[in-house]
Amino acid sequence: MKGSVLVADDDAAIRTVVSQALSRAGYDVRVTSNASTLWRWVAAGEGDVVVSDVVMPDDNLFDLLPRMRKVRPDLPIIVMSAQNTFMTAIRASEKGAYEYLPKPFDLVELTGIVGRALAESRRKNGDGQTQAVNPETEGMPLVGRSPAMQDIYRVLARMMQSDLTVLINGESGTGKELVARALHEYGKRKNGPFVAINMAAIPRDLIESELFGHEKGAFTGAQARSTGRFEQAENGTLFLDEIGDMPMDAQTRLLRVLQQGEYMTVGGRTPIKTNVRIVAATNKDLRALINQGLFREDLYYRLNVVPLRMPPLRERLEDIGDLVQHFLVKVQEEGLEAKRILPEALQLMSSYHWPGNVRELENLIRRLCALYPQEEITAEIVAAELDAGEGAESAPADLLHGEMTIAQAVEHNMQDYFRSFGDSLPPPGLYQRVLAEMEQPLILATLAATRGNQIRAAEVLGLNRNTLRKKIKEHGLSVFKGG
């Protein structure tokens, strides 16, 4: 026999299939339906691995886990659960479980995990101490029980007690910042600050000052010393949102910080040591940007230590019900009247494609609660709101299909830009910044359409060829001539 596995679950069917799978894989298996028997076996030194459900008739595994770890600190404990929430995964990790498996799970995957558990030394946290999270008192930062979200939960649970850099990729509105906050708030840096900066919302000429701070007199308008986001995030987490929009010169400085662990303020002369965890996010294909010469490949590999893809809502439609309930509770706490979404309305939501992702769903629930006096929300009401909101929420798709003018697309983008500042306004000089931002993608798209032919691109743009060459050089564009 490869080893002995203790299986605990109050569901006889689960006990049977798990026992059969592990037995076929060569393990000696003992099964029980209650926690007291499991505890007696563990305390007696029996079993090499434990596979147990969380909820059993006589006890909760999370209450039992600390005792099991105290008497058998090297015993791998694999947690099964049908609750399938983010907090279940986190509690399993914080209580010292070797692995968390949401039900239903693949039996081949289970036997593989059991094999690794027997072969590996138990992974220990830095100080061996964990702090339990009470799901009754802690807000749920992430919602959903779909297989796609279970994968996210399991990666996050493994990353909580590490400082590894995480790169989150996903469409707008999928919850990338929520993931970054969860990594911080449930990790070992939770007592430090969480500082977020959106690269797309900061003028290019101010990004280095925003990141690293500046000294008095470093540039025109620098009337006093200013702290940067790295300094503000010391001993905490720095979230670099929309990292794909970071200009090349700022990328170079960021790479140097990641390599050397220190930086200098703009206008400063003394290096400053930094101790922050970096979490970055983007809705762009960084590989494509690398090929276009717009993103540093070495920086990409520094950031992409742990890649994490946030699925769009259309790939996790089974989570609609949980998300709707979550947002209904949220808006009620904000003072809006409670509503009930009828099953037909939920079904309609589950068949919608959600171009704006979870953010669009939240906005829909907010509108339904704010604008309609009915206590029950029907499918007809939802259909009307989805039809009305389609244009605003799906602006990028409409633009691709020729259903939106360039002017409308710019207006849509600028509305999002102003909203990103909340109650504040952008820094002065917006007009020139917007024109400069539009020039690069305009030239890039034209060159792509002409397959790198600069003569034809200049004609299309109405520019002198030398002027086009100058602008290509200014923007650092890589031009590849196609057939």
Automatic annotation (TrEMBL):
<keyword id="KW-0535">Nitrogen fixation</keyword>
<dbReference type="GO" id="GO:0043565">
    <property type="term" value="F:sequence-specific DNA binding"/>
</dbReference>
<keyword id="KW-0010">Activator</keyword>
<keyword id="KW-0678">Repressor</keyword>
<dbReference type="GO" id="GO:0005737">
    <property type="term" value="C:cytoplasm"/>
</dbReference>
<dbReference type="GO" id="GO:0005524">
    <property type="term" value="F:ATP binding"/>
</dbReference>
<dbReference type="InterPro" id="IPR058031">
    <property type="entry name" value="AAA_lid_NorR"/>
</dbReference>
<keyword id="KW-0902">Two-component regulatory system</keyword>
<keyword id="KW-0805">Transcription regulation</keyword>
<dbReference type="InterPro" id="IPR003593">
    <property type="entry name" value="AAA+_ATPase"/>
</dbReference>
<dbReference type="InterPro" id="IPR010114">
    <property type="entry name" value="Transcript_reg_NtrC"/>
</dbReference>
<keyword id="KW-0963">Cytoplasm</keyword>
<protein>
    <recommendedName>
        <fullName>DNA-binding transcriptional regulator NtrC</fullName>
    </recommendedName>
</protein>
<dbReference type="InterPro" id="IPR025943">
    <property type="entry name" value="Sigma_54_int_dom_ATP-bd_2"/>
</dbReference>
<comment type="function">
    <text>Member of the two-component regulatory system NtrB/NtrC, which controls expression of the nitrogen-regulated (ntr) genes in response to nitrogen limitation. Phosphorylated NtrC binds directly to DNA and stimulates the formation of open promoter-sigma54-RNA polymerase complexes.</text>
</comment>
<dbReference type="InterPro" id="IPR001789">
    <property type="entry name" value="Sig_transdc_resp-reg_receiver"/>
</dbReference>
<dbReference type="InterPro" id="IPR025662">
    <property type="entry name" value="Sigma_54_int_dom_ATP-bd_1"/>
</dbReference>
<dbReference type="Pfam" id="PF02954">
    <property type="entry name" value="HTH_8"/>
</dbReference>
<dbReference type="InterPro" id="IPR002078">
    <property type="entry name" value="Sigma_54_int"/>
</dbReference>
<feature type="domain" description="Sigma-54 factor interaction">
    <location>
        <begin position="142"/>
        <end position="370"/>
    </location>
</feature>
<dbReference type="GO" id="GO:0006355">
    <property type="term" value="P:regulation of DNA-templated transcription"/>
</dbReference>
<keyword id="KW-0597">Phosphoprotein</keyword>
<dbReference type="Pfam" id="PF00158">
    <property type="entry name" value="Sigma54_activat"/>
</dbReference>
<dbReference type="InterPro" id="IPR011006">
    <property type="entry name" value="CheY-like_superfamily"/>
</dbReference>
<dbReference type="InterPro" id="IPR025944">
    <property type="entry name" value="Sigma_54_int_dom_CS"/>
</dbReference>
<dbReference type="Pfam" id="PF25601">
    <property type="entry name" value="AAA_lid_14"/>
</dbReference>
<dbReference type="GO" id="GO:0000156">
    <property type="term" value="F:phosphorelay response regulator activity"/>
</dbReference>
<keyword id="KW-0804">Transcription</keyword>
<dbReference type="GO" id="GO:0006808">
    <property type="term" value="P:regulation of nitrogen utilization"/>
</dbReference>
<dbReference type="Pfam" id="PF00072">
    <property type="entry name" value="Response_reg"/>
</dbReference>
<keyword id="KW-0238">DNA-binding</keyword>
<dbReference type="InterPro" id="IPR009057">
    <property type="entry name" value="Homeodomain-like_sf"/>
</dbReference>
<feature type="domain" description="Response regulatory">
    <location>
        <begin position="4"/>
        <end position="118"/>
    </location>
</feature>
<feature type="region of interest" description="Disordered">
    <location>
        <begin position="124"/>
        <end position="144"/>
    </location>
</feature>
<keyword id="KW-0067">ATP-binding</keyword>
<feature type="modified residue" description="4-aspartylphosphate">
    <location>
        <position position="53"/>
    </location>
</feature>
<keyword id="KW-0547">Nucleotide-binding</keyword>
<dbReference type="InterPro" id="IPR027417">
    <property type="entry name" value="P-loop_NTPase"/>
</dbReference>
<dbReference type="InterPro" id="IPR002197">
    <property type="entry name" value="HTH_Fis"/>
</dbReference>
